[in-house]
Amino acid sequence: MARERILVVCPGRGTYNAPELGYLARHHGGSEWLARFDALRGAKGALTALDGAAAFDPKVHLRGDVAAPLIHASAFLDFLSLDRERFEVVAVTGNSMGWYTALACAGAVSGEHGFAIADAMGVNSQGHEPGGQAVLVLAGEDWTVDPALDRAVRAAMAWHGVLPSIELGGMLVVAGAEAAMDALERDLPALPRAPLRLAGHGPFHTLLMQASSDAARAQLPAEWFGRPEIPLIDGRGKVWRRFETDPVALWDYTFGHQILAPYDFSAAIRVGVREFAPDRVVLTGPGETLGGAIAQVLVALKWLDISSRQRFTARQGEDPFLIGMGRPVQRKIVIR
Amino acid sequence: MDAAEQVHLKFLDALEKGALRRRSNLGLKDVGLVPERAAALLHSQMLSRQLDRLSRKLQARGEGFYTIGSSGHEGNAVLAEALRTDDIAFLHYRDAAFQIHRAHRVPGETPAWDMLLSFAASAEDPISGGRHKVLGSKRLMIPPQTSTIASHVPKAVGTAFAIGIARRMGFDEAVLAKDGVVLCSFGDASANHSTAVGAINTACWAAFQRTPMPIVFLCEDNGIGISTRTPPGWIEANWQGRAGLEYIACDGSDLVDSYRAASEAVEIARRHRKPVFLHMKTVRLYGHAGNDIQLAYLAKAQIEADEARDPLLASAALLIEEGVMTAVDVRAAYDGIEADLLRQVELAIKRPKLPDAAAVMASIVPPRREGVARPLADAAARAALFADDADAMKKPQHMAKLLSWALADLLLQYPGAIVCGEDVGPKGGVYAATQKLHARFGSARVINTLLDEQAILGLAIGAAHNGLLPIPEIQFLAYVHNAEDQIRGEAATLSFFSNGQFTNPMVVRIAGLPYQKGFGGHFHNDNSLAVFRDIPGVVLAVPSNGRDAVAMLRECVRLAHEEQRVVVFVEPIALYMTRDLHEPGDGLWASVYQAPGQGAIAFGEVGVSGEGTDLAIVTYGNGFYLSLQAQKLLAESGVGVRVIDLRWLGPMNDDAVMAAVAPCARVLVVDECRVTGGPNEGLVALLAERAPDKAIARMAATDSFIPLARAATHTLPSRDGIVAKVLEMVRG
């Protein structure tokens, strides 16, 4: 029987929260990879210990140098848990730092180097000009976006010098200096939900991250990069296919454009579903919040007649098109 | 077996047996092509090939509608590698590999999905919205092309020319880069079409006098046009050694040789801004289109020889021998593309189609541009511009003089406006309507063209593609007919076939219509507007007097600039120099020039002269002039007539016409064009349908050509004829 075709999506920061504490132990306890990752972490603290803490401590677990490796390890090990005999991974993508995980899943970097990159970038991404990120919810209750609202928000952003950071389905993550973000928030049109500042996040995917980009280029060598075994879709919607990939160009994108320019996750999903026509989209853990953004992209595309939140919910009930590995029931569908 | 499947199996078999052969010993390093880029090119070629196979299967299922493929022509992908992605490309219909490869270079593109939507005629097809299977993409700077043979070559030449003039003008709103290159591709059979021959000649004519002409003409020579062979050696013999034209040849089946030639061609076009004829020898695999059986007209040996030149065989051999991929890798990639497409297509054919006529027609009229209205020029600038005409401007003038001033004001107000045509430069046009423009605005904006109407209209379309506002002039109405397709098939359809994404706004000025007393004969008195009447979306304006002409020309330029319309503005030659209406010296047909902003006439606004209710005369142009003469004579006979000047003949403002004739129970249509095909047909039909109680008659030119001298008006409506007809209708 032909294998089902799946598009794998790796989540970014903000997906390892209190409910996810213990995710590694629950799903990947005893994995050799965890031992390797802990060894790589060395004095920075074992992931298994952080994952196994008695309580979720936002001051610790949301810090970039902790959150990034936790999320990466959870996502990468989820990827390795997929039942590849029943599921053919036709392409891999990720959101924001999930790109580093996608690199490892696709085989463009080794598992160890993938972890080392995510781990290093968790620290490294704390080096930037002052500023942060906020999530603006543009989609209404039905998950569609009013184009007029979208235009008004972007006009206000331009006026206050706030930059687009991540195109995230019906949400827009913005970044900038704190004062500019404050001014923007006072001047925004009414949004379906109040803007949400992301604690511990820098002004990711903007030129304010130049120091982070420079440090990454200095620390993380191009030699670690190879060609992906599985097509990779980046944060512009570009597809990196095996023989067409120049590893140095992939390295350059990863630590250049990817850090310094807006990350278009919506484009990555659009390209993923249109060019690879997967039977399902599989969102690795931890968490499941990115599922909303993926669903909103599907609604915008009217993919498989998913033209509203209600249609999406109905579709998920019958035979889920979007599998969240952070959801135990759905996880069972795709793991070995 | 289906020919496409046969070629497919031959490829698989050669891969399996290691029987692939490269076309030359040229290696990737010889041309500076890195392995990854060569692999990307092969991927684009294979995707193009698999799409061709699929299109035939779709047609067999009734889900696909167009099967003219690119198989054998996949070498054109190298142009997408050699050019920049912002270089505009006017493509041959066998250039899917080019478009795919350009898409590959632009992140976020979905070339396979987009092509499948196009096959399936889905309303979501990103270029045409389901209106045609065309190659094209706004984001990839590929305007859509339909299949009129070589009809895109004049505008490609015009675009290349417009890159140079925009640069000379210092025009900062140009669409294309100052160092941009234009690609224009076509087949060997199309290279014989007069349109291609004329357009390439135009490029040579310009380049020969060192005018920048950065264009690559890619002639994809597969040796046959449908079933007619191109004589072996004809293309090189015909196009080598042409004045002003560089000629480069390559083997389109050889990726490396093609890339070498493409790079050289692009380099010459970009660095030296010279036109290049890139002769790429290709093969046409499995016939002209899906239903074409080659064995009916080609020997089996010939078909087999062509199949041996399949570019996929050679590209795969090259990559395998160079160690970039193994045969197994190539097979896996080729199969992988097929597997993806087979899943994609089942989703693509379910995407929505155009549901009704309104949806089909939604892009005939281009989208209006907001916030682009141009302010009027300031008084000081106008005073400086017209310093040597200040006294003349205080006096009544004839239409030709008024038009020349209106054009000058428009060139001042619209920095992107250009005037082009035969003799429009220092001479000022054969009727002086462009007088002094050249001296006032220079040769970058007032352009003397060669004697070829296709070139003039091609220049206009090309200039519009580069963001300029062209006002081309066609010297005589009869001359537009040899270039009609540039309006009908190209300019008018661009918005329609691109779902409103590409537009080519322009105002085509044409001197025409009959009654002129000087230069006689049919070709200077052509009285047919039929060619413009049935083109959807085109605006047709015909002024009858100088005051209206100025106001209407301004409105036409506004329509082009703000609403992106293609406008045809026909100026009655016989009225250019006319100053008097009823008797010599009355000066009633001359008027004082109105400054911009004064005396506006809106699109669709008709003119009404007189308040008589015995009868309404509906007319335009010379007919309006003659009808006003008749109106006076009729008044002296106690008959009150109102005369309605349509001004805007296409699309006709039906409601305005009906409102204007409402007070009258009798309507006479006076049409200087022929009774067959003239505007009278539509008018009489309108009146009959909307006002069946009225007495309706028409007086139009007979179905004749125009003779010379005094016989010139025998076939046309006359003042006295109108008087007689009105009296007959009123008095019975």
What is the arithmetic mean of pLDDT of chain A?
96
Query: What is the distance, rounded to the nearest whole angstrom, between the alpha carbons of the first and last residues of chain A?
Result: 16 Å
Which secondary-structure class do the elements of chain B indicate? alpha/beta
User: How do the SSEs of chain A run, as a string of H and E?
Assistant: EHHHHHEHHEHEEHEHEEHHEHEHHEH
Q: From the helix content, strand content and strand pairing of chain A, which structural class follows?
A: alpha/beta
Q: Report the uncertain regions of chain B.
A: none
Query: What is the CA-based Rg of chain B, rounded?
Result: 29 Å
Q: Specify Rg of chain A, calculated over alpha carbons.
A: 19 Å
Beta-strand content bin of chain B: 5-15%
Main sheet: strands, sense, barrel of chain A: 6 strands, mixed
Count the DSSP helices of chain A. 16
Q: How many strand elements of chain A?
A: 11
Percentage of residues assigned to helices of chain B: 40-55%
Tell the overall outline of chain B. Answer: elongated
Strand order of the largest sheet of chain B: 9-8-10-11-13-12-17
| Biggest chain-to-chain interface with counts | A-B, 21 and 23 residues
Mass-distribution shape of chain A:
globular
Number of helices of chain B: 27
Percent strand of chain A: 5-15%
Question: Going across the major beta sheet of chain A, what is the strand order?
Answer: 8-7-2-1-10-11
Percentage of residues in helical conformation of chain A: 40-55%
Structural notes for this entry:
The complex is a heterodimer of chains A (336) and B (732). Chain A is of the alpha/beta class and 336 residues long. Chain A has helices at residues 23-28, 32-41, 47-51, 58-61, 64-81, 98-106, 111-124, 147-160, 178-187, 210-219, 247-255, 257-260, 265-276, 290-301, 309-318, 328-334; strands spanning 4-10, 87-94, 132-137, 163-168, 171-176, 196-197, 232-233, 239-240, 263-264, 280-283, 322-324. In chain A, a hairpin with a 5-residue loop joins strand 7 and strand 8. In chain A, helix 2 packs across helix 7 (111-124) and helix 5 (64-81) runs antiparallel to helix 7 (111-124). The model of chain A has no long low-confidence stretch (mean pLDDT 96). Chain B is α/β, with parallel strands linked by helices and 732 residues long. In chain B, strand 18 (666-674), helix 26 (679-690) and strand 19 form a beta-alpha-beta unit. In chain B, the strands form four sheets. Chain B has a seven-stranded mixed sheet with strand order 9-8-10-11-13-12-17, with helices on both faces.
